[in-house]
Amino acid sequence: MARGSAGRWQRLNGPARIGGVDLARGLAVIGMFAAHLLTTPEFWDWGDPSTWLIIVDGRSSILFATLAGVSIGLVTGGAVPLTGDRMRTARGRLAVRAGMLWVSGILLILTGVPVYVILPAYAILFLLALPFTRLTSSIVLSAAGGIGLVTAFVHPLLNELPLWYGPFGEEISAVLGWHYPFPVWLAFVLAGLGIARADVRRLRTQLWMLGAGSVLAALGYTGFEAPQDSPYLQQVLTADPHSSGLFEVFGTGGFAIAVIGACLLVCRGVVLRMLVLPLRATGAMPLTAYTAQLLIWAAVALAMIGDTGDLLAFQALEPFWPLTIGTVIGCTAWALLVGRGPLEWVLDRTAKIVVPARPRMVDRLNP
């Protein structure tokens, strides 16, 4: 963890930190809180502000997955992929983190909190993305588009596999995070990885992300109506949240790219970057914020309701604002007073212990 107040401030605000990525993560975390704890409308009408809350439904988790790809890209070299032992070490550490995320996800599922925990899917996506970490931006982005296109048509067939309807179907679905189906969602992670390879620090890349993402979102959300006599095409040609339909993949994927681009542009200015510091602090420790929310939810629900699984009763307590404000304040205070998020620190230290850095060639030749 960061040593001294100057070190903690530098870690959060120094040139090595990409503030726009932290801001986007912070928005994704708060969006997932809203999706969990608030009742979202069934449709979106630009002329009716009461329907705007639907923006968090499905889009927050896809933004989270896209940012996972950005993180993978950054730790494996950013604009220029690592090579040799350095890449093998980075991949090994990512694999260790994936394993720990999967275990963390299973433990959160066992709390009985009635949400679809994203961490098991997150862990699987980390592993699936590893073979793509040596590739260039254009190749990775092309792969993301191709995978998104193909799997949107395959996903309805995968949903009909007997696996999900057997005696342990629900349990298998939970441990695989199938609410966030990894064959489709790999496209979002690879989109983030491709963005990182395009160098998210460059103004040109940020403007491209905002423009291209907005175009994709507009095209995806104005997709044509599927034939009413084809249940299969209705599942494919849809932008409904959590449908993994073609228009959701490209529309919400584009939305995520545009949001990240906008956040990067906002954080180019010093004043705006300081104004959003609490959200950046939350985004600097997303695993801690996400986990803390679910654990507090479980503890409060058990104490006040006697049942961690009663969603309506917990929502009736109106927990969104207390949990959200408490999380933002807690993360900001921790970042400034302690440093790295506690769970992020545990994952990082464990990965470095399990997969130590390989000695440089000069050290091998001159022991």
TrEMBL record:
Transmembrane helix found in the keyword field: yes
This protein's UniProt keywords: Membrane, Transmembrane, Transmembrane helix
Domain Heparan-alpha-glucosaminide N-acetyltransferase catalytic, first and last residues per copy: 17-207
Transmembrane segment boundaries: 61-82, 116-132, 139-158, 178-195, 207-224, 244-267, 287-305, 320-339
Taxonomic lineage of the native organism: Bacteria, Bacillati, Actinomycetota, Actinomycetes, Micrococcales
InterPro entries noted in UniProt: HGSNAT_cat
Organism of derivation: Microbacterium bovistercoris
Name listed for the protein in its UniProt record: DUF1624 domain-containing protein
